[in-house]
Amino acid sequence: MTAPALGLQKTPLNAAHHRMGGRMVDFGGWEMPVQYPAGTIEEHLRTRTHAGLFDVSHMGEIDVRGPGSIAFINSITSNDASKLIDGQAQYSALTTPEGTVIDDLLVYRFAADQLTLVVNAGTTIKDWDWVASQSRDESVELKNVSSEFCQLALQGPDALEILQKLTDLPLEDIKYYHFDQGGVDGVPAIVSRTGYTGEDGFEVYAAADKAEQLWDKILDVGNTGSPEGLLPCGLAARNTLRLEAALALYGHEIDETTTLLEANLGWICKFNKGDFVGRAALAKQKQEGLMRRLVGFEITERGIARDGQEVVVEGAKVGRVTSGSPAPFLKNNIGLAYVPVAFAGGGQQIHIDVRGRLVAAQIVKTPFYKRVR
Amino acid sequence: MANVPENLHYSKDHEWVRVEGDIAVVGITDYAQNSLGDVVYVELPKVGEEFAANESFGSVESVKAVSEVFSPVSGTVAEVNEVLNDEPEKVNGDSYGEGWMIKVRMSNSGEVDSLLTAAEYEDFTKAETE
Lengths: 373, 130
Fold this sequence. Notes:
Chain A is α+β, with helices and mostly antiparallel strands. Chain A has 8 helices and 19 strands. In chain A, α2 crosses α7 (about 235-245). Chain B is globular. Chain B starts with 8 loop residues before the first strand and ends with a helix.
């Protein structure tokens, strides 16, 4: 309710958010729209049924160049970057020697000697310092190019049709987790078939000074303002969309106290690719077995779980909610939590301590929401 | 700007009070519902519970956040708006009407005089947004 503090960082779309009535909040040091006048529920539903447009320009980008790029990235991330081909992207993580998570990120391969790491906004400086400190190969050049780019995420079943009106790139041919480069409304752009909502969609990267042109044009061709048109969406809808899809959010499901295996991210731990930071610790944990695991739960009575609340089983505190919220599309109340593996099975009855009241819930399979392809 | 009806009393926690004899009808203001966003859940007390002035009597939740709601006056809960269990969105749609939350049988009706008038509340919200 109070105006954002001075000194917040702003994306190139800051003026557009204000102009369009976005409610601006401090998000990890960035002044960002938490919602637009349509409201979080409508923004969420429109993204599931038609399309939503998100400003994600606050994300960081680190360029990695030179002949040793892939070997370097493979030494500090858990997934196998050598498997990428030109024009492909990969979900991966920067890991600590303990196998916990410095950040999750996307690795984009433009060429064998030219890759980009796309990292979270709030961790960009930490990631940059860590990545730079790990580089000992003089053939690898690193550059923090975060401020040069804007990033727009166009998500939802109508995303392809909308974006195709502005580009000659054959969008249908860009496979999931691949990208292409070309003009969008005449602006040189990277168009990537990725996203964070559980829907089909694209993320468009372009020069920061073209952000407003692209934002306005995409909304325009998306028939924003009509009942089935494209809606600009804020961070609250982005959060509920990713939670329904059970996608991890840094600082919630994953951080430097949680390992990738505990977070169900074993699929991005490639033990056979050679050594990487945290490999030994993760291999040991895999062999010895997990003590706790991230699970999804659904509230089975009245009440909404929130981040940080305790999970209770038979009167004992056994874990903690990492994300809890109403699910606008599923129309129930859901969450993610760490619990001991003994209580991690589907159907397990648990309680969430909601401000002193024990609210019944049960563990369910994730993702909560999966789109019909 | 937010709607602030003349005939009500207001708290600095953004509740309104309408006096009907010794009963105070309590809800949250248009300004408050707008700040919260889509209301998805309202937790209300039981009839017969007692609250002191400024004590929390329940909570109202949007997709994003939980806010406590405070009783602007002391007294006993005479009635709660059960409709909000199934239709919490009435808090957004009609915050001064069908979105009312509780009726309190006041133990000290003089407390109403210390609440803000409509004009005072309007100034208060303006100062808060600046």
